[in-house]
């Protein structure tokens, strides 16, 4: 049988070693001298840096994975601190311009609808270091790449909003309510993207809105002030009124754009010196002319040392869940 010469195995081993080395992103530094970035992360206008650490264990891959995750968290914390400081200033400016009430209403409306989660992206590992007791990872967020992608996402969403906006009448009219409702999740998602843009920018730079988009959002706010929900008399009327207001929607004691009815079953039990109240039932939404738009089930539970307090908590929970389901349905593409 023919046998390969020994030098063949040596060459193959060398080639495999080169290939493996070429696939790694950053090789851990095992020098005795601790790199400067461990104590003093680099600073420049393009990147945000974070240094993550983790206890040195036998499984170095796992240790570095945890260190990188901790470094990512450090970057996120830096960005959140900058944005929270900027938001305080922005709220103060908004209040001085007399637009605070509208901003609060929009925020309540946007937070009640589902939006796709936005993750911290464009973070890469630049260096690693293995110390005597800990491993270290230098993580970096590329601002320019992140901002470029966000601009593309916001522009795409703006085009969708403008396409819907051209379908609206010049004034607020009731037949346009499906269009306005569909705009709610678009603006909610846009708000998240713009906040993230501010998060990634070096000086918390505000995103410059398209004038057409700002005009459509202003019309949306006016429409939500004019599209009222009439709450039919029931034991849940007060709790529903609070839930609608918390969601940025307006209620009325007279005939309105929408009518809301409830059909519930309530029970209470006493156990271990506490009262438990359970509410199950439906909320039904109808148009001004009486046509049923939809009906949704919701449940509520309240626990307290007093029966009235337990009942109140159950009503509040039921009302909040019911209104969220109603709003999510109205803002969907079903109309």
Summarize the structure.
With 335 residues, the protein is an alpha/beta fold.
What does this structure look like?
Residues 1-28 form the signal peptide. This is LPP20 family lipoprotein. The protein is α/β, with parallel strands linked by helices. It folds into three domains: 24-106 and 119-142, no CATH class; 144-224, no CATH class; 228-330, Lipoprotein like domain (Double Stranded RNA Binding Domain, 2-Layer Sandwich). 50% of the residues lie in helices and 23% in strands. The chain has nine helices and nine strands. The strands form two sheets. A five-stranded mixed sheet has the order 6-5-7-8-9. Strands 1-3-4-2 form a four-stranded mixed sheet. Helix 5 (143-165) packs antiparallel against helix 6 (177-200).
List keywords for this structure.
single chain; 335 residues; Double Stranded RNA Binding Domain; 3 domains; 5-stranded mixed beta sheet; 4-stranded mixed beta sheet; 9 helices; signal; LPP20 family lipoprotein
Largest sheet, strands/sense/barrel? 5 strands, mixed
Strand content: 15-25%
Low-pLDDT segments: 1-24, 83-101
Which strands sit side by side, in order, in the main sheet? 6-5-7-8-9
User: What string gives the helices and strands in order?
Assistant: HEHEHHEEHHHEHEEEEH
Percent of residues in helices comes to 40-55%
- Domain count, please report it: 3
Structural class, by secondary structure, is alpha/beta
Count of DSSP H/I helices: 9
C-alpha Rg (nearest Å): 28 Å
**Gap between N and C termini, in Å?**
78 Å
Mean pLDDT metric: 82
Keywords: Signal
Organism: Marinomonas piezotolerans
Protein name: LPP20 family lipoprotein
Signal peptide: 1-28
